[in-house]
Amino acid sequence: MARKQALEDRFERGLFASRWLMAPMYLGLVVALGMMTVIFLRELVHYAPQVLTLSPEKTILVVLTLIDLTLAANLLLIVMFSGYENFVSKFDFDAGTDRPDWMGKVDFGGLKMKLIASIVAISGIHLLKRFMEIGDPETPAADDRTLLWLTIIHLTFVVSGVLMALMDWLQARSTK
């Protein structure tokens, strides 16, 4: 019996230690964040010298692109920090006042809601950009079918987010 318990203990310790296999994935997300930073800076450097010649519509499209990239980068940070703390290990250092308020407080349900909210925001910005391109002679406008599908996909994200929030709310009510 003691041998069976020792085997079970080793198995459980190994299973628990396997969470560290996620660490390289979070490191990969750091690289992805660096890639997004490079793309953001590339866009900024490309359009900043044109600021005096850009049309108001084109300026809005550029700003929406930069906001889109920033939201995606924020999403990456949330997934990296929350995922690491929820599934691998707690951060053991004191970041002081620089530590974001939500760090250490976002559980899997909160992470899921932040994720869907970010996806809806990114999708909405992308859809708005495509609608704004309709009158832009420099940009080939999307056809009606493409716009319809983009709208359907965006609404699917919105409905999914509402349903996930409803499920979380119902689950919270049922555990009280």
TrEMBL record:
Its main location: membrane. It is found in: Cell membrane. HAMAP family: UPF0114. This is UPF0114 protein GU927_009565. It is a multi-pass membrane protein. Pfam families: UPF0114. It comes from the Bacteria. InterPro entries: UPF0114, UPF0114_bac. Belongs to the UPF0114 family. The keyword ATP-binding does not apply. The chain crosses the membrane at residues 20-40, 60-81, 111-128, 148-170. It comes from Paragemmobacter amnigenus. Coiled coil: none annotated.
